[in-house]
């Protein structure tokens, strides 16, 4: 696997735990064509006021609102804080260069940089990306379904904090991540606490007051449900665990390669 260097954005370069052989700038990705499965509404919704405002104040309340009125709390305070013990347990499993999908304000990027690991965050929210960069992470304002640097060469992809829901179609997201990762590399994903939960819904980001954002597709999956989708798509389950009241899985795509 060629190494990936993620050094084309503002902010300090990550430390030297990984030998960098190839320099790839973020401008050099244009040739990749990607089927976008996500609605424009999703990009607009996460870019809109309720989320940007919550990131600005570093506090909620903020929710994903289902059409039946049910509210899923979004843990803005935790995302704006430092990585906690459960996060660090996930990060200890990372291999190679890390792509943090839906990086939000970047607590995981900061922790990875502190460990000297090469990492890039991507997020459709401009407010999230600028906070992540201000915190010393490397991040791009991009959807996971857009052309991305290092396609086919990432060592680890992260999908934490419910981000398995991105796009509202878990099979499409898994297929996209399988293309982004190098063969035999790792997806670390957080799942919903109910193992069999398999929900695809239309949601809006909303605060306690004010106008909710545009509706967009989202998914929530428990561990058993995610493992079913992953198994059907040829991923291998490496581990599943709980920590700090949260559930996680480690999945490996394609044939195994030697680990660092
Ligand atoms: C549930 S929040 C998770 C926050 C985050 N993991 C953190 O550490 O703060 C979902 C995040 O995914 C981002 N997002 C939504 N759709 C996306 C997409 N298609 N590609 C990349 N990021 C996306 C949102 O802007 C938001 O920051």
From TrEMBL:
Keywords: Methyltransferase, Transferase
InterPro entries in the record: SAM-dependent_MTases_sf
GO molecular function, one term: methyltransferase activity
Pfam family membership, one: Methyltransf_23
Any one of the GO BP annotations: methylation
Protein's name in the database: Class I SAM-dependent methyltransferase
Species this protein is from: Streptomyces thermospinosisporus
